[in-house]
Design a protein that fits this description.
This protein has 9 helices and 15 strands. Strands 1, 2, 3, 4, 5, 6, 7 and 8 form an 8-stranded antiparallel sheet that branches. Strands 14-13-12-15 form a 4-stranded mixed sheet. Strands 9-10-11 form a 3-stranded mixed sheet, covered by helices on one side. By secondary structure, the chain is α+β, with helices and mostly antiparallel strands. The longest helix has 25 residues. 28% of the residues lie in helices and 31% in strands. α1 crosses α2, α5 crosses α7 and α8 packs antiparallel against α9. The chain has 4 domains: 50 residues; 135 residues, Jelly Rolls (Sandwich), CATH 2.60.120.260; 49 residues, no CATH class; 90 residues, no CATH class.
């Protein structure tokens, strides 16, 4: 309620004078002081009522009430700002559980978390004699298109070593796999690079595999191929290699790691598939695996393939060749194109033909659309571009008169 202490005081004085016209109420008198004290107390009651009303509905709650609301319903709100927490709560209210629609997967993803954090790795830290070892790809676990190393039948005993530059407390490691040929990698730690202690093993998986162990101080971590299943005589070795796409090493952390955003792309890779796009970009693959496991556990009984990706940023530049440019409102055209890109969410389909629609809408006769992806050469596209796990950023190219 919008009211001040002075307004309440003046109302009280008016009421008192209406009751007793001879009463003396001026500043400094005892009656005035008593009235002012009472007015201040009444104003406090009004403010308390206002605050209580604000805590009834999430959009007007303060952060403490939002956290209490989420805690009462078992929602994970660690590392969330007040704005992110409000978004989570409103999504919870507006999308009741139904056992498998996209909003359910998004909720499950936001409820998942992992302990510890990934140590920041650089390509200069990677060495070893693993076949096709690529240090640059090894330190990019979110990029499944690169291959950190590939190994086959005759590669038992070969290894990859990560030098952390100084001794660090670590509690586990993880490897990502593109293929699922059964194989085991021993995990060893060392402080001098000479004397190694075995901490466990990582078995190949269809996505991400980890091993956890008691906290240990180590500078070096070694992954050594210990076993690999033999292939049949009719199988080709080059088609059945064990390929690793990234490595992570985990250290203890005071707070759990959890996503702050999630979007479900249902049937993205075909019927029965789910692609979860989550943020922030600092999430480890360990947390992504926790999200995948949570969605798989909570999801419908029907088999589903679930992938979890963190969007990366791609820049698209457009070059639009327009017929009839002299009759076209170029400013309005640029505004429409910018708005179109701003509304594209990660995973949405960008349709070049929509740009031609904008041209004709604003007076152009026809147009040709060419696209440059991340600064590459311009090419003409006729079909839609699927951003997949990328977040598109719009950069306007040139408008050419034909």
């Amino acid at each position: 309620m919008s009211i001040t202490v002075d307004q309440i005081l003046q109302r009280m004085i008016v009421d008192a004078r209406n009751y007793n016209p001879n009463i003396v109420i001026s500043q400094g008198t005892e009656t005035y002081i008593r009235f002012a004290t009472a007015a201040s107390a009444v104003w406090g009651l009004y403010k308390q009522i206002d605050w209580t009303l604000d805590q009834i509905f999430p959009p007007t709650m303060n952060q403490e009430s939002l956290e209490q609301w989420a805690n009462d319903r078992g929602l994970n709100y660690e590392n969330l700002t007040a704005s992110e927490l409000l978004t989570l709560i409103l999504s919870y209210l507006r999308n009741p559980r139904s056992g498998g629609k996209p909003s359910d997967y998004e909720r499950w993803a936001l409820e998942a978390f992992s302990t510890g954090k990934a140590v920041g790795l650089e390509s200069s830290m990677i060495s070893g004699n693993m076949p096709s070892l690529s240090a640059a790809d090894a330190v990019k676990p979110h990029d499944r298109e690169g291959v950190a190393f590939a190994c086959g039948t005759d590669d038992t005993g070969k290894y990859m070593v990560v030098d952390l530059a100084s001794s660090k407390q670590i509690v586990g490691v993880g490897l990502g796999f593109i293929t699922n040929r059964p194989a085991s990698f021993g995990v060893f730690t060392s402080d001098d690079g000479q004397s190694w202690t075995r901490k466990g093993k990582v078995d190949t998986a269809y996505w991400w595999a980890m091993v956890e162990f008691s906290e240990v101080s180590a500078r070096y971590v070694k992954f050594e191929l210990e076993e690999i299943e033999a292939i049949e005589s009719w199988q080709l070795e080059e088609l059945n290699e064990v390929k690793c796409f990234g490595v992570e090493i985990y250290s203890p952390a005071t707070m759990n790691e959890a996503p702050s955003s999630a979007r479900c792309l249902d049937n993205y890779y075909g019927i029965g598939t789910v692609l979860m796009l989550v943020g922030p970009r600092s999430l480890s693959m360990r947390c992504c695996e926790a999200i995948r496991a949570k969605c798989e556990y909570e999801g419908p009984v029907a088999p589903r393939e679930i992938w979890v990706n963190i969007p990366s940023e791609t820049t698209l530049s457009l070059r639009v060749t327009v017929s009839g440019l002299t009759n076209m409102n170029e400013v309005a055209f640029r505004e429409d194109v910018t708005k179109y890109f701003a509304e594209l969410a990660a995973g949405d389909l960008f349709i070049p033909a929509q740009i031609i629609v904008f041209v004709m809408k604003h007076g152009g006769e026809n147009a040709t659309v060419e696209i440059s992806i991340d600064g590459a050469a311009y090419q003409q596209y006729h079909n839609g571009l699927a951003p997949q796990n990328r977040k598109e950023q719009f950069v306007m190219g040139s408008v050419v008169v034909q």
